[in-house]
Design brief:
single chain; alpha/beta; TIM Barrel; 8-stranded parallel barrel; two-stranded antiparallel ribbon; 8 helices
Length: about 240
Amino acid sequence: MTRVKICGIMRLEDAQVAAEAGADYIGLVFVPHRHRQLTLPAGQKIVRELKLGRDQYPQVVGLFADQPFAEVNDAIRQCELDLVQLCGAEPLDYCGKVAAPVIKVLHVGTPAAPPLRKGGLGGGSSLDTSLSDLVSRLGQYREAGCLVTLDRLVEGQQGGTGQSFDWSIAAQLSRRGHDFLLAGGLTPDNVAQAIATVHPWGVDVSSGVETDGVKDADKIKEFIRRVHGANTAEH
């Protein structure tokens, strides 16, 4: 069954809509200067109100990028985060210092992108995005106990662009038995096709369920409905 993460939640009502529609995860952004950035008190309020009176609720993921791990761990404690998503150039040893399970974002280039420098783990957007390199990096993070999200590489940005990459790359990884969340450019209109093409472990959406930059309850519900429909069709 394909898991669903609704990311970039900024309002309690959007978290509640996602929960009631059956989202597995919601994402709260704590990356400085992102337009969906939350303060810790705002994140804390959303999490506490979301969990109040509920036996079941989506797991809450806090998003960070190249921030001191002490800052990340403080946010985990204050906001009662279930997981952390690292969107920057964090290496494996950084992931091991985080006081919650980690989702590590790996950025995937496109054939049209300019040539990239080769690099090792933690090289961020300068990583070589060949399939063999992706397989190696994905395997290393997975062996370290991290979930992995594949998102579009856009030079100078750490994700959240709403742009997709070549799904055939992700499909090859899936066929080789690699689990990951698929992100970038997903919408209610294309998520069923993405699942049928890629067979990802999970899908991650933010801008694709917004209208004029604000989360849209109808789009959130429709996105989750179509994911669940795709799951039913596959079985």
